[in-house]
Amino acid sequence: MKGPADNCSRPPIGQPIACFNRRRGKIPRGYIIIPSLCGQNKLKIYPFAFRGERVNVGEKLRVVCYNIHSGKDRWGRWRLDQMADLLEQLQADVIALQEVHQNSRYGYQADLLAERLHCTPIFAPAKQVSDGAYGNALLSRIPVLDSANMPLKTRGEPRSLLKNTLQYGRHLIDVWVTHCSLDRRSRGHQLRAIHREIRQHGARPLLIAGDFNTSTSPLSPLLQDCARESGTATATLVTIPRRIDYVYASAEWQVEHCRVIRQKISDHYPLFVTLTLSDS
User: Fold this and answer.
1) What is the C-alpha to C-alpha distance for residues 107 and 9, in angstroms, rounded to an integer?
2) Are 12 and 79 in contact (CB under 8 A)?
């Protein structure tokens, strides 16, 4: 069984290679910029190269939301290879991940999964870990045009909202990824911030996926709760029968199918959703 040391044998595609002040110097070609923990005017650079396939509007868009628990199962055993196998079988176009490491101590997990799945990885650090970070990630088979990482207020472990714009056929769509706090007060602040972002969002079709750490559907009725729309609102936690992982869709989306994948290789089950968007 591979552990984190096996995941660090070479510099991965998404490893931060530089930290610089954006008022100085030039951004290297072929890299995407994600706000880091380095200060207001500093950014970390993550290598970027689109490796996916274009998905045409009218085809079903396959979305997965998955808290990978740092690549471990509920017993603390390393399961990143099995997670990659499962995600490969699901053939998702867009994968929203929480509890992802990008550091030499635990492995560059977003990059390893993206390489296996032939996706573009976008990593959004929430907190510093070892020589890298830990946070949310998006893996995409369709072109990613823009990304931003919005910090969310918390009294404990840092949290953030990763906001991405993707090219879906001739449409631009927004796909956001988040992980809210266990602490009820902090989670309330975070949800109010996300609600504000939704209300201020423009006309582009929107998807939001994440671990919200609450069994009360937190973004309804602002957005469609995909599991409720498909009549499959079942538990997403392995350890207790609670539903805390959600995929939400704006009104432009038609929810075709939603199911919880009952594979106990994390402490969460992945949520798999298929949707269509009219080409109008």
Assistant:
1) 9
2) no
Peptide bond into 47 cis (omega under 30): no
Which burial class, exposed, middle or buried, applies to 74 when counting CB atoms under 10 A from its CB (0-12, 13-18, 19+)? middle
Residue appearing with tokens 């996706």: 119
Name residue 171's beta-bridge partners.
Answer: 168
Longest C-alpha distance within the chain, in Å? 53
C-alpha span between 211 and 268 (Å, rounded) = 9
CA distance 233 to 227: 5
Give 193's pLDDT tier (boundaries 50, 70, 90): very high
**What is the C-alpha separation between 67 and 264, in angstroms, rounded?**
12
- In the predicted model, what is the mean pLDDT of residues 235-240? 96
Structure tokens at 124: 């959004």
Q: How far apart are CA 23 and CA 148, in angstroms?
A: 18
> What are the beta bridge partners of residue 237?
268
State the average pLDDT over residues 255-262: 96
C-alpha 127/C-alpha 172 separation (Å) is: 30
**CB contact set of 75 (below 8 Å; sequence gap of 6+):** none
156 burial class (0-12, 13-18, 19+ CB within 10 angstroms)?
exposed
What are the residues whose beta carbons fall under 8 Å from the beta carbon of 137, sequence distance 6 or more? Answer: 96, 97, 100, 102, 109, 110, 121, 122, 123, 124, 162, 177
